[in-house]
Amino acid sequence: MYTLLLVDDEEEVTQIIAKKVKWNELGFSVVGHANNGLKALEMLEEIQPDVVMTDIRMPYMDGLELCGQIREKYPATKLVLFTGFDDFEYAKEAVHLEIEEYILKPINANELSECLKRLKNVLDKEREEKLNVRKLEQYYTDSLPVLQTNFFCSLVEGRISDSEINKYLNDYQISLPGSYFCCAVFHTSENHVPDGMTPLLLSISVQREVKEKFRGKWDCRYFSYLGNIVMVANLGKEDEITRLTDDCDRFCKWAYRVMGAVVTAGIGRVCDNMANIKTSYDGAREAVSYRVLYGTKRAINIAELAPK
User: pTM of the full predicted structure?
Assistant: First the structure.
């Protein structure tokens, strides 16, 4: 049911309208009557009806002034104007008020019913559009984790230009204010899997634990890529990389001691531009590959190895 407010200073007119029209069958419910524009505005604040049907000539505030106030305060409300023949042209001049329907007095029940049918069609379409928008918004919200992961995968592949990055950050609701960024790659060995686990389940478990261990200490985003866990860290200062490397090293040792997982963390170079995260990621992957020389269950920082 759509709600409707009747406004007319002639109580007899509103009584006749209320009785002659089959409101429920037409999909409307009359939620109030007002005998002048001021009273109607007071009622609007409380009930906020879908439709206001008002006469033009009324004391204190006429119908056109009321429509103007409604358009300003309640722009979604539909307006129907009752007008005598003498006022019809005057009423039509108020096109800027976007009156939905004009009905000439004396009011004919059939004509009013047809008017209400047209209004209901308009209101139904608007409601359907709002529902569709809500569904799309919900779908967008549900899809955000996938969209964010796709963004980071494209970023480490170097497929996003510098000019596009801010647009994607806004669209996908990602906050990485900087001023510095760094990639870390966590490689979990598939040759040392605890009983009752699979390599995939172990990797998922490691990703969950690294998130938990770093929560509150580091501002990071995580995603799976090419069988590894990739972490993009947001750093306030460039020299924070030393502390991050130490924390990654401690996590690798903890993962082996507690979980039985052989994890090696590769730490890439720090960059001051998100467009260069690919370079940091490439360095982190290269650092992980050095585990054959330097051993597993530890963090390896590429910046400490490359000069050697």
Answer: 0.60
pLDDT tens-place string over residues 145-200: 999 999 999 999 989 888 898 899 898 998 888 789 999 999 999 998 888 889 88
Gap between the Cα atoms of 154 and 160, Å rounded: 6
The sign of the dihedral angle between the CA atoms of 21, 23, 26, 29 is positive
- The structure tokens listed for 128 are 């359907």
User: Are residues 272 and 178 in contact, defined by beta-carbon separation less than 8 angstroms?
Assistant: yes
Closest CA relative to residue 165, chosen from 177, 151, 153: 151
Q: Rounded to an integer, what distance in angstroms lies between the CA atom of residue 54 and that of residue 130?
A: 27
Q: What confidence score (pLDDT) does residue 110 get?
A: 87
Give CA–CA dist 299/224, Å, rounded.
18
Print burial letters for 257-287: b (CB count within 10 Å at least 16), e (below 16).
Answer: eebebbbbbbbbbbbeebbbbbbbbbbbbbb
Residue type, 264: T
Secondary structure class of 299 (helix, strand, coil): strand
* φ/ψ of residue 6, rounded to 5: -95, 130
Q: Which pair of tokens denotes residue 45?
A: 């604040």
C-alpha 37/C-alpha 8 separation (Å) is: 9
Q: How confident is the model at residue 85 (pLDDT cuts 50, 70, 90)?
A: low
- At residue 31's C-alpha, the angle toward residues 73 and 1, to 5°, is 95
- What's the gap between Cα 113 and its chain centre? 40
Place of tokens 């938990």: 212
For the record, the structure tokens of 15 come out as 């009584």
Q: Which of 87, 37, 32, 39 is nearest to 58 (CA)?
A: 37
